[in-house]
Structures are given as C-alpha cells and as structure tokens.
Write a structure and sequence with these properties.
single chain; about 70 residues; two-stranded parallel ribbon
C-alpha cells in the first residue's frame, strides 16, 4: 500500500547505504516510484534547497501518475 519511496544516499558514508541499490531495484520491479536524494551530511554547503524542492515536486507528479495507473484512471 505504498505509493512511493524516498531514500537518502550519503556518498561519504558508504556503510550507511550498503544494500540500497538492491532495495531500489526491488522496489522499481514492483512499479513503486523511487526517489534517491543524495546529500553529504558532513558538508551542509552541498545542500541545494531549490534542487531538492524541484526533485520532490517532480517525484510527487510521478507518484500521482503511477497511482492513477494502478487505480485504472
């Protein structure tokens, strides 16, 4: 009963993201939209709030579209 999944990827902390690619592939095979938000928790200067907002807005459109398809609309 999941419409979409947002995952956090932290390149500077590889142990935290081990297995994430397998989870992403598994979710995508089910047709569930997945958004991977990449950030660096050690350097807040890498955060681009405009990009984050745009990515989330586009993802919500994908989620809504996928949900309508599943519901036959």
């Amino acid at each position: 009963h999941c419409d979409g999944v947002v995952l956090n990827s932290t390149p500077s902390c590889r142990p935290r993201t081990i297995g994430q690619m397998a989870a992403i592939e598994m979710l995508r095979n089910t047709g569930i939209p997945v958004l991977v938000m990449e950030n660096d928790m050690t350097d807040s200067r890498t955060v681009d709030e405009v990009k984050i907002r745009n990515d989330l807005e586009m993802f919500m459109e994908v989620v809504d579209s996928a949900k309508r398809r599943r519901e036959g609309r």
